[in-house]
Amino acid sequence: MPMVLLECDKDIPERQKHIYLKAPDEDTREYLPIANAATIPGTLSERGCAFCGAKLVIGGVLKDTIQMIHGPLGCAYDTWHTKRYPTDNGHFNMKYVWSTDMKESHIVFGGEKRLEQSMHEAFDQMPDIKRMIVYTTCPTALIGDDIKAVAKKVMKDRPDVDVFTVDCPGFAGVSQSKGHHVLNIGWINEKVETLEKEITSEYTMNFIGDFNIQGDTQLLQTYWDKLGIQVIAHFTGNGTYDDLRCMHQAKLNVVNCARSSGYIANELKKRYDIPRLDIDSWGFSYMEEGIRKICAFFGIEERGEALIAEERAKWKPKLDWYKERLQGKKMAIWTGGPRLWHWTKSVEDDLGIQVVAMSSKFGHEEDFEKVIARGKEGTYYIDDGNELEFFEIIDLVKPDVIFTGPRVGELVKKLHIPYVNGHGYHNGPYMGFEGFVNLARDTYNAVYNPLRHLAGVDIRDKAQATPIIQREAA
Amino acid sequence: MLEDKIDDVFDYVQERCLWQFFSRTWDRQENIDGVLEQATGLLTGKEVARETPMSRLHYADAKIMVGDLQERYPWVKEAGEQEIREVMDGLKLRLIDTAITRSTNRELNHHLY
Which residues in chain B have their CB less than 8 angstroms from residue A279's CB? Predict the structure, then answer.
């Protein structure tokens, strides 16, 4: 029985359709976990909301855009600073947070005036900023505030500003994935092809689905600069609002996170005949493959080989040092969706790590097709996992390290299992060659951290031995 | 024997190639057709088309795939044109069956992205 009913799920047997244990000689098409489906009552889901998917994941990354959140204060605060996506202009997006701070009276009498006032106030306070995204939230959607009409009015009053609206309350969809979709489709419908930028290279591309987590985008940009490729728009790491309006000018769409951003790549292909090339940006083997494919598309293969040789010479010895020490360690990956399939083979091939369990919060069935095709037999594949399931899976697979978010991370630390932040990273960037050495280093530091073993010792009990962990300097 | 070789290339594609798992049925079909046509051309020493953006895209994916197959499986370099065509035809049928026909992905045929 490859679909697994865990002991903790015996009262919610529907969960069996969401948990798969890959077995030898099996046709995985028969056993694709159900995904992107409503959370089953009785399970304590760890999913985010649709508004969060639009704001925290995609829109809030932009470095020159006011993120006006039309709702109660908490919607703004809880989607601010929980991801680390710096920018090269002083981290404007992380310094400030904006909210209309809706209170009971605004809910009763309507919040459009308050939104209009807040938008003017934000532009007045930040005269150098001329771009804004306005998001609706659950209460303002329920009372029917027309944020698009307000945005039009403000743009009429201020001809030098441009405003984009995201009508995606938290209750839309089954997870944050809906917010990704709404923002992608809204942007292509309303903003792409509203501006033209100067073309400086015959090789142009959009880099889609990379959010500059701890500098990923900036690291990869050094590669594109060396290759002579002009990135028209980064969707949306270290990106600007106006660059995203020019996405139609690129010759190629390179997609990393296909889950959050595949939609806009598909639409750009459909509407503008710009091909979509999916790559993996984490891991040496994958990064080399991605660079080779991009260069083959443009016919600049020699430049790609030179870049790969340079990067390998610099970083491969460091990676191998960690590989020697991480060989055979067991990892669990409990993140959003795509990192399951991005990482399972890269940590296996580049670091000798075995991935024993993977859980996705908002992945779709497409993501499970990818990860089951790439992942190992004997590994658990879980959709929308909950805490009790995590405890049970830990007992079954006994991981040495878990890549997950801080909330689940703090939980597993109490079991003396180290975690590495799989969303915002510990000490990134993790993409590219240098980045994967950083990931290896953080994994090594987690696995060989003496404190987690010491924390398991009850110092009142003299009979308990204190474990000694030998840790070397890299 | 032929089946073993199809197994080899199918396992490789499953493990390495994201193009087989694009969002919709028609995207998957377009990629399977395009990449395998280019790969067959490259493996049989033919001049492959690179005039359109899509043909350049499929060429880029096929070039990496062909290089990897030649490195992983010694029989690839020794195979004649007829055998390459048979293997690639078999691979195509299996990919269509796996990624399209029998896929239970409920989003594959949605008319919108």
Answer: 18
Shortest distance between the Cα of B46 and any Cα of chain A, in A, equals: 17
Cβ–Cβ contact B74 with A under 8 A? no
Do A209 and A262 contact (CB within 8 A), yes or no?
yes
Within chain B, strands assigned E span none
What would the pLDDT profile of A16-28 be if each residue is shown by its tens digit? 999 999 998 777 6
CB A470 within 8 A of CB A314: no
Task: Give the residue from chain B lying closest to A275, CA to CA.
Answer: B54
Tens of pLDDT, residue by residue over A236-249, are: 999 999 999 999 99
pTM score of the predicted model: 0.97
Q: If you count residue pairs, one on A and one on B, with CB atoms under 8 Å apart, how many are there?
A: 83
Contact map slice: B 13-52 vs A, CB within 8 A = 14-16, 18-19, 21-24, 27, 50
- Report cis status (omega within 30 of 0) of the bond before A338: no
**Which of A82, A74, A31 is closest to A57 using CA atoms?**
A82
* Mean pLDDT score, A73-98: 94
CA–CA distance, B77 with A413 (Å, rounded to integer): 51
In one-letter notation, the amino acid at residue B78 is E
Task: Report d(CA A133, CA A67) in Å as an integer.
Answer: 5
- Alpha carbons A9 and A335: distance in angstroms, whole number: 21
Burial (CB count <10 Å: 0-12, 13-18, 19+), residue A449: middle
Distance, first Cα to last Cα, chain B: 41
